[in-house]
């Protein structure tokens, strides 16, 4: 699981062009969206769908499902481990 | 009269936020690159990570203009010839190389021409008239004409600008579709125009575009006559080509300074404005944009005190 | 000074001229079906049956060009039919397009990527500005040519700019509108945004999922009162009002309350000197994306309060034709004005829960319609409204 989370962080940084961040800057439980977290927005949510599809073969058809799944690295890792 | 309140350019010259760009300008020679300011000073990092060069240049130049004038822009008019080429090409590569059905949308979102003006309004939280014009080598002039019309209609603080970016792919078209000996370059120039004089030195008197095969010199004569002057009254001609080299008191072919991008005549306005600051005895400058065959953009700029 | 419409032309998936489009509107027949071309066959699209070569032949065009330019030439030619070029009448052309000649350049670029030799000459059709120059050339217009590229509000903005150029005296007559051909680029683009419905689009319906893309072009000829005295043309409608505003909310989404939309509608009403009560029909932008239709509904409620005029989205007929939509829908509005039409919003079943707004559900003629408001909203928050009035 911790490997998965580390990989995820690197993939998030690449997919979303977060050049100024390193995986260590992203806390497992910190919100990814909104001003309290990394400040990601709805375009990033679409990029997360691409990330899940291309790296884990997981399809999300309805973007509105993404809200809970993409809350934090923890929720993402949970979802991936359950659906892979 | 349309007074130039402030003007900013990001180009292959050291032209951004300069007292007078003529202190920095030299003809481009050999290898040269876009001289980028630290965009982080103008664009939040969260937004910056997605933005291509053309968007970074455009938003930064526009924001630097807004910082220098008190009033919020009440109209924004932007010209671009080829638009957001980096993102356009990136999305073309995506649709041809990604086999699955799920595609990254960011490049598509940012590939449309109006991303520049749209991002400016978004960043400035500006709800005013927002227009994007694209007309090949006359993209800046058609955007400028809309800006001037906005002032005629009573707008007070109009942002007019142009931006284009080079991508390596353009080299493939050199000699066949694009005839130029200059390097392909990127550049953005944004200016604030107003019907009130303020602290401005120079103003735009008129701008005209045409798409005919009529003789260039005849069109120039008619344009100047309509603006109550003649070639003898023009102290400097900034031209895309060299047609007027022997006929002008002073002549500069502006692509020698800008390189080749199709909205570079916007930078010629910056050159003209700052020239008039430096040359106190000069009063009129004509920009002749004859970059492409059968397209002619003419812009007359004069020192504010000059009558007609 | 009044701005008159003295000509109009349209081509869309429901017909290749205005008469055919009217017949399809009347018979409540959508043009959206399973695509027939390699890049559309997997989707429901508002596609025009003919290939580029066939279109050039059928309409006696003098130039081979991108699909975007060809469709533009066809609609602009219909609009300009019977109008004469005259050096005394300064005539300009303003056309809107979202991706210009992408439909042909994307094919050449694909060859390039796969290592095959691409025909470089094809790329000359790519620039959006070139599509307008080609349309202007087809009509013989060589004075002022301009292209507006504000995504889906492009044609509405071209119409607006034409009116302003006429009012300022810079032009006496303007051919204005917009055009877009279907391309793999835009299909893939809207799919990547996940607002692309695999089923028939359902504007203003609670179950709407997204757009069906379409292609086409719509153009008007605008003249001033002075010009009409010279040309002797019969006014077919009045372009009474226009407005553009920036939503400045998000790169792709509209503000939930429809702030930019509200500003655009109010500004058009103010230019026209009309009150909301004067509007008899709204041709909505109504793309059928969850976000647009909700935001537009809120905007309409803000502007019109409790007495909302009949409204509908004709994108259920044509698909979303992007930059062309404002031009095509302006032609539909003129047809509606002159025949008292209310145009149905096909595929509507269930009102959006949050707003409860019910669009026009069936076609009718002979209604008393004097003023029509038409919305066009582009992404990037570019919101435009025009108002057309009966002569």
Automatic annotation (TrEMBL), chain A:
Pfam families (UniProt xref): PP-binding
Annotated ranges, domain Carrier: 2-84
Signal sequence extent: none
Organism superkingdom: Bacteria
Protein's name in the database: Acyl carrier protein
From TrEMBL, chain B:
UniProt xrefs under Gene3D superfamilies: 3.40.47.10
Domain Beta-ketoacyl synthase-like N-terminal: 41-170
One Pfam family of this chain: Ketoacyl-synt_2
InterPro entries assigned to the protein according to its UniProt record, in alphabetical order: Ketoacyl_synth_N (IPR014030), Thiolase-like (IPR016039)
GO molecular function: acyltransferase activity
Name of the featured protein: Beta-ketoacyl synthase chain length factor
Organism: Fluviicola chungangensis
From TrEMBL, chain C:
Organism field: Fluviicola chungangensis
CDD domains assigned: KAS_I_II
Source taxon at top rank: Bacteria
Protein name in UniProt: Beta-ketoacyl-[acyl-carrier-protein] synthase family protein
Record's keyword terms, sorted: Transferase
Any one Gene Ontology cellular component term annotated for this protein: cytosol
Family: Belongs to the thiolase-like superfamily. Beta-ketoacyl-ACP synthases family.
Keyword Cytoplasm set for record: no
Ketosynthase family 3 (KS3) domain boundaries: 1-390
PROSITE patterns referenced in this protein's UniProt entry, alphabetically: KS3_1, KS3_2
Pfam families: ketoacyl-synt, Ketoacyl-synt_C
One GO MF term attached to the UniProt entry: 3-oxoacyl-[acyl-carrier-protein] synthase activity
Record has Membrane as a keyword: no
Single biological process term from Gene Ontology: fatty acid biosynthetic process
